[in-house]
Amino acid sequence: MSGNRRSPVQEIEVELKDGDTKDLFVFIRKIDAIAPFRFGIQSKSERGLALLDRQQFMFKAERLDLDRNIKASAAFQEIAGSCFRQFRLNEEILLQRRNSEGLHQARVALRRLRSAFSLFRPLL
Q: Which letter does DSSP use for residue 54 in this model?
């Protein structure tokens, strides 16, 4: 809450401390079958700061600084994660405000992700 601005908190945090990552996703799918959810992208501090600032109507891709010596698999993860974040931030705006610029940026995120799949196809 910030002044008269409020944002409900409805979240669950799941963390894998040990074991196979596949088991984590099996568990998450079981939760989703009972109570459908969406992956959150913003940290708690980002959500709090958003209450203080004026609301954004779209999110462009954030700058990625990849190390020259990064492995291809790690580079793909960084790029795909960036695309996913850009899409989800704009999806939230679309669901709340039906903003055309948010729609455009969501489509940009999907195009970037498709390009990453094409570029990294031999790896995948």
A: P
